[in-house]
Write a structure and sequence with these properties.
The chain has helices at 2-21, 24-46, 52-71, 76-95, 106-123, 125-132, 137-162, 177-200, 207-234, 250-254, 257-270. It has 275 residues and is mainly alpha-helical. The chain has one domain. It is globular and about 65 Å long. The relative contact order is 0.13.
Length: 275
Amino acid sequence: MKTRTIVGVTAIPLFLLLILFAPLWGYAIVVGLICAGCSWEFLRCVDPNMNVRFKVYALAVGFALPVLYVFFPSQYIPAGLLYLLAILMIFELLTSFKDDVARVKVETILQVMFAGAVMPLLLLSLVRIGVEHAEHSAVYVLLPLLAAAACDTGAYFVGSFHGKTKIFPHLSPNKTWEGCLGGLFIDIGMMLLYALVLSLFKLEVNYLYFAVYGAVGAVACEFGDLAFSAIKRQYGVKDYGALIPGHGGMLDRFDSMHFTAPMIELLALLLPAIK
């Protein structure tokens, strides 16, 4: 717990400085690196012996997606990159028929497409929400990050000290209903606190909508955590990696973000809480 807390306390201010003072394209590069890291760890989990070339395809598309989108905010950027990845993998499938031994499996193609297309597309919301609300870019970019961090932190500490009722003991042994409720209420509290801080800077905020961000974001966060935990359990691994001390790998840290970021982006469009 001590190592996890120290890393968290150190990383959060660095992210805040990046969002508040770096240009959006700089933040997009960091998101691209996160996408690439998550894709690599996912593919290493599902198939440790996968051809490195296939992993590179997924990493390249994952990194390029948020970086290109921030400069060319068009639906054609994601569509074009996903099409490119599909073409590369189908080409690998066709050329593998020259060798009767090492043919590319359809399962491998689907794994690469999920890691290099679906996962980065979900994390693209971290950048797209800033592009869609360019007048308050940094303010909106912080929303999914705060929502996921508050829920994860609240669920972890409340579950550690008061958790008794297991949700899915065979899937996520440490996850409890008490922890989930703690994450939910702390997430709502964090969103309301964030709204209060923004109001001090003369921004017009809707506190009810911010509470909705917190509640729905917490549910999405828990769902994402459970989803990627199920994949780990199916392949018999405890963590996706060991890059971040006390947290596991990049994907262990950003698993819930794959569902939280798109949900917060959608809510920000449907229920704009900042004017």
